């Protein structure tokens, strides 16, 4: 299936939208890293906030101070969450398991 041909204006609008999404996701992860945001709060608003919902759970865990790739993978495995799962795709039991694994 071929991608549709975009006009320069459509391409620029799409690039601006993706740039804004990346900046918002970066701000969210920076908030986690600084302690202004908490994982349970981000998980709770994952269904209503598209930026939080489209963020990978592994990125959220790695944004926590002291959690690198190995420790984050261990926490996700303990909680039974696949590496590529996004926040909006978590069930209530997975959210609870993640919070208890981090706590």
Automatic annotation (TrEMBL):
Residues 32-100 form the Integration host factor-like helix-two turn-helix domain. Pfam families: H2TH_5. Residues 1-20 are annotated as: Disordered. Coiled coil: none annotated. Gene3D superfamilies: 1.10.8.50. Residues 9-20 have a biased composition (Basic and acidic residues). This is Integration host factor, actinobacterial type. It comes from Actinomycetospora chibensis. The lineage of its organism: Bacteria, Bacillati, Actinomycetota, Actinomycetes, Pseudonocardiales.
